[in-house]
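This is your field. Have a critical look at the following sequence-structure pair:

***
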Amino acid sequence: MQVIQFENGTWVLPSGTVRSHYKGEQLANIFKESEGRFQHVIVEDMTIDGAFDEAVKDVQGVLHLACPTTFIADDPQELIGPALNGTLSVLRSIEKHAPDVRRVVYTSSAAAIIDEGKPLGTIFTDDDWNELSVKEVEEKGKNAGKHKYRASKVLAERAAWSEAKKQGHWDLVAIHPVVTLGPIIHPVSRPSQLNTSISMLYNIISKKDAELSQEELLTFK
C-alpha cells in the first residue's frame, strides 16, 4: 500500500508499506538517492485490524496495490482471508484515521470480472462479476482449483465497493490487470526469491509443460 499527499500543486508519495524490516531496508538502499524523501512503514500482517493506522494518517489518497498471493493453497481461505481482510484493514484504517482521503485506487484483477461460464466472445465490462468462481469454491472447497484465487479477487473487490459506499467521503477506483510484470528491482539470488507473477513467467520459460500448474498454463499460454 502507498499513500498520497498533495503538496505545492503536486501529488507526492510520502510513504509506503513493506512486509518486513528486511524488505524496507532493501528498498531504502535501492532509493538511497532519495534519502529523506523515501519513507516506509512495516506492516507484517496486513489482515490485522489497525495494521495500516499509522500509514494512512495525514494523507489524501491511498493506492492499495497488492496482497499476499499463492496458487498452491489447499484451503480456499488461505487465499480469501488475506485478500478480503487485508483490503478491509486498509479501508477501515482510512475510516478511523484519514478523514482527508478523497480517493482510493484498488488493484483488483481481471479474474474478478471474467466468468468462464459465459459464451466465448463475451465482452466483459465493469458491470460484470465472476460468479462462476465464487460458486465453484462454495460447492467444491479445496477442490475448486484455479477458482480459489479468482474467487478471492471477487470477494475482496466486492467488500471494497461496499466499504466505499458505507464511508462515503472518498471515491474508489478499481483497476483489473490480467497479469502484472516488470523489471525486478530487489536483489534475487535464486528462483525461490522471485515474486509470484515473475516466478510464474520463469517457470514457463524454464520448465516443461507437464511440470507447470494449471494457473501458469492458463495465464501465459
The chain has six helices and six strands. The first helix runs from residue 21 to 30.
